[in-house]
Amino acid sequence: MQRQLQWASFSLIAALLAACGGSNVDSTAPRTAALRMGSAGPTAPPTASAHAALVQALYLAYYGRVPDSGGLAFWTGVFENLNLPATTSALYDAYGSNATVKSVLDGFGRGTEASDLYAGTNAEFINTVYINLFGRYVDGGRQNFWVAALDRQAITRSFAALAILVGAQGGDQTALAKKNEVATRFTAALTAAGLTDTSPKGVIGTDLLAQVNAATDLVAYQAVIDAAVQSIAQDIAQTSLLRYTAFQNVYTEIATPVRYWLSFGRGTIPVPSGKLAFGLGERQIGYAKVPGSSSLSVVYDAPIVASATIAAQPDGTAPMMLMLCQAAAESTSDVVRNKSTDMLVLNAAQMVTNAKELAGQTLSTYREDCGVVTTQNIVFDTEGAATVTDASGSKVYPVASVQTALNGVLPGSLRVMDLAWRAYRYAKADGSVKYAIVSRTMSHISIPPEMPTVTAAVGASTASSSTAALGALSLWSQE
Predict the structure, then answer these.
(1) Are 15 and 86 within one domain?
(2) What mean pLDDT do residues 95-110 have?
């Protein structure tokens, strides 16, 4: 009876998925001729296995990358030896009634790589799946639907990723088909050349897929695939890959995982350099360490004009937390122009969700627009209540208010400014444990010029109509 009830809940999810615009489309169906146009010939599957296309699609949903040869062989072997379904739609149908299917899929989605990629909240998880599969942010309605189901534990993350994969339609189905096509071409080209993607965690293939969306011209994109294969053939080593969670200053966007890696040429070179990729594919910039400068002097390409770093490593090349700032831009709203800020937090940092975990801590360094202010601080008492001292003075917030800010959004004065806190515990290079809070102030209505100065909720600075901004980001930390 319990299993029948469980499967009934999955059937309900399927119905709700359809209501949200999804359809039970098999994303591992044979590629169409239209998708092959312009390629050198018919697209070859990664291997002769009937499960190869399925495993490739699951790698995309769960890990956002092309499967490595070892992983592809392992998982196709698992699916074949257990005689599991060979398509995503059949796998989806069997998840609620077949204990073996559920066990394998849950194992696929709970590995170390998945845990690293999907560190954070259920909202961040869903957004990452959408970026991996479709190259876009999830819209609010679907986000709310999936997050609510995950929060009440009606479904697992493994099932959610599979259901989103199976339910693709329209532009999402097009994007998914193109990503699978690129993955297939890349794998086939590596196999033909006798190569494997030796970059850490398959970063070359990951970057290749991250740039694909529904609008990608596959004929033109073949040159990008060829260049990726050539980079592997030339043994251009990717020495490290670190994953971050990013916060952007547009209040409607939720945090999104990002890729960050250091790239080196052959042998040893004195100046680390590489790419920083965050958000969607167009948000990619280069960076380089300045020769002869201090250990923390890393310069980022345009449009970044300033940065502020909490280092994870002594040489400063691996930030634990990184604030990137762009120049001020005109706003079309009456809310105002301000610097565009992005805040990145290494996924190795542990998220703090209980106010009592912050008891006794003092965060005495405040960063805003990549500048440091040491006269502002947050002091937590022995219970986790916070005394916030900022430009407007000091105010005490009870534990309940701190808890609300950590777990969601705390409405501010006059309900014109909302604030969310994301607290982290992190270890510095010397092994010491520190705490930090990313503070996001979000304006959800237009602020008329005549409105008096408004003090936002916990941790937000006093703002007037000339300084308030959509999605203002700041960082409180210990140094």
Answers:
(1) yes
(2) 89
